[in-house]
Design brief:
With 381 residues, this protein is α+β, with helices and mostly antiparallel strands. It contains 16 helices and eleven strands. About 5% of the residues have low confidence.
Length: 381
Amino acid sequence: MTNYKLTDVQSDSYFTKNTYLDMVYVLTAPEMPFTDELKNILEKWNFKEIFSEGEKSLEYAATTESAAFNSADSAASLSLHNDGDKLAKAEELYSSLVFFVENMFIKAAVSNELEHKAITDKVKDLVDYIKEDRRFIMRVIKNIEPAPDKNYLATHSVRSTVIAIIIGTYLKLPNYRLIELGIGALMHEAGMLKLPSQIYLAQRPLSAQEQKAIMTHPVLGYSMLKGFDFPLPVCLCALEHHERENGTGYPRRLVGEKISLFSKIIAVACSYEALSSKRPHKEAKDGYTGMLELLKNEGKAYDETIVRALVLSLSIYPIGLYVLLSNGKKGQVVDVNPENPRFPIVQVFGEFTADGKTKTMQTAPNALTIVRPLSRTEIDT
């Protein structure tokens, strides 16, 4: 893969192979000129370079790769081109938040520092964005797998926070409570920072003694946040996020109404995030399978109102999920159907509107339906 400076790419020129943003998202296929509009979008979001295995060309030359323009990969590239500015904004917001949390956790672990105002400002921005449009950040979360060599605590905390705020928005929490919920979700694993990193980052089964140490992190997190004068509802998020409705959680084996609302929300959000994200010691389940596991709610571990809010916010086939459709096409879930979470709105790869945009369709019983989820590998082949 070769990197090309954006300033060196001539307007309306072509590449002989797909171009990529950050070596993850397809920007153009060989048939698509690199337009001024696309360059302006990238420059607006401070992207300085693009990547491609192909070469620059002033004219389009048909290739074997480009002949299959209706493939899922080419359709995904056009989809990104159509939604480029919104996806770029969502990716920039997500990446900046992960970077912020990584550095915040390092400071907290090494220097015992936490900047309450900086955390609050970040969460305010995230709440405002999610209330405006949660769809694109959920697609970004689906498309970007956490790097295996990175501290998973930061990405888990950010992803769980996004999902928790989406649930809180569905429950119509007022803005100040959404901000408190977001801070609590972002800091719910703070107690882990008081443990040796070789325990919570271990890529092996933990010993009985290490498992016992891990189970102290809710109390450690509560004490840490209380010491920095965080509000009590935020401190309780750290203390109670492993409590369960049926009393099987820890550290205090609380039941039902004794668990704070924020902790109930974070329990569902971080459980769903953990189910649907890859870890060094386990493979990710697809979002649909993760959603079904939470819907089963075995032993009534989770508050059913919160689980229902998650499903109705993201659908049973959650936003961002790649899917195989009953017409044989591949697509991506891009929005929910508020009337029926089993039949979300899907962007269909390989089908286009008259103006060249990827077609978006409502799935429905006895019409276009989802056959099964697809992995990213199945989309790229």
